[in-house]
Task: structure prediction
Amino acid sequence: MSDEGTAAVQRTRNRWGEGERLRGEILDGAGRVLSELGGGDGLTIRGVARVVGIAPASIYQHFADREALVRGLIAHEFDRLRDLMRAADEAVDAGDAVGRLRARLHAYCAFAVDNPGHYRLMLGNGAERPAPDRPPAGPLVDVIDTLRVAFERCAEAGHALRVPADRAAVMVFVGAHGRVALLHSNPGEQHARAVTPFVDEFVDLLFV
Amino acid sequence: MSDEGTAAVQRTRNRWGEGERLRGEILDGAGRVLSELGGGDGLTIRGVARVVGIAPASIYQHFADREALVRGLIAHEFDRLRDLMRAADEAVDAGDAVGRLRARLHAYCAFAVDNPGHYRLMLGNGAERPAPDRPPAGPLVDVIDTLRVAFERCAEAGHALRVPADRAAVMVFVGAHGRVALLHSNPGEQHARAVTPFVDEFVDLLFV
DNA sequence: ACAGTTACCAAACAATTGTTCGGATACTTG
DNA sequence: CAAGTATCCGAACAATTGTTTGGTAACTGT
Result:
């Protein structure tokens, strides 16, 4: 049932070198490849090995196969995105609920603009989970959920919403995601700066 | 400078059979492959040839290379999308400007929901045009422009907007696109029906 | 220092890919 | 019917891919 590392790895951490050191380097190298080569395809085992400076076979001791590698990379990058959003939130005065919401969104957009390859890989997949789980789970809904609590904090602070908080969360997420996707498929660099005021305008639209 | 067909083909239309008959069948077959195999990758010359029932070599008389084939397919599908949106618009009573706008958006969402593979291929590309043209051109901005005129018609009919028409157009497009992308990366079938009321709610948000 | 375990690598295998070349086929023109 | 031409296909080439196998070097505890 385990996804990637195979039991052998997690049994031997901190024995050789720092244990899972190479695993992290592989993920970093994969991220670097993804940054240079735009699309999620083209991310090849051999290419990652070449960037990291190791043999292709060495990757198979940390990831079962190519699919496990991209799964690991996606999870890694989602963790990074969540940390960035949380850090941006906590860097704002705790009393300014709307400012914290804006900071979260700005961090999201900055990540998407700075890492187009990662972003497309994280949000460009489809038809992966055959199980029709009733609650649509996944890292995306986690992000949306953090936005929901941010909206709820705004509402508790006295800023009235035009729609329920959960609805506002998916609306603003959808707006940010759509705006970023529009930027990515139309690479006019002069518009990269325009995405932040756009989502700000979006947020304004959701308060009375 | 010509993109795909090579001069030989367009010089001989309507000579053999119906001229560019096979070209259309190839595009249709490519679309079928794209519908079954989700992603834009995996759309292979040999796969298309197998589906159409021809030899892989036969494709190269209608398309210079694989890239030209996907370019042709993208253009083909954008034409189809534009026709669908226009037909939906014209099927509504000409006096109901908001209804016509809604019809355009519904047609857009229906296309995106029914053809996930096409949709991802059409909007999932990036870093293709190295020329930093000042006006960000492309089929997407054409779609947005039709939405802009639809919004302007609404404004002329007396429905006041909360933002300028061009701004409203990109906002509602971004909303629809983001909602569809969210659906695609979270394939919960019970939500496919939820995208239309979502964009309706979006439209409501843009009028006073 | 010695045995045991682990991380890593060089090499090769099988499969698939885009693409090209020469010939066979079917249609049009005279 | 003959000549000409455009269309399509079988076969092959070179390149790249994911993956496996057996071996080598490094580090562990005793």
In short: The two ends of chain B are 49 Å apart (CA to CA). DSSP finds nine helices and no strands in chain B. Residues 66-90 of chain B form the longest helix (25 residues).
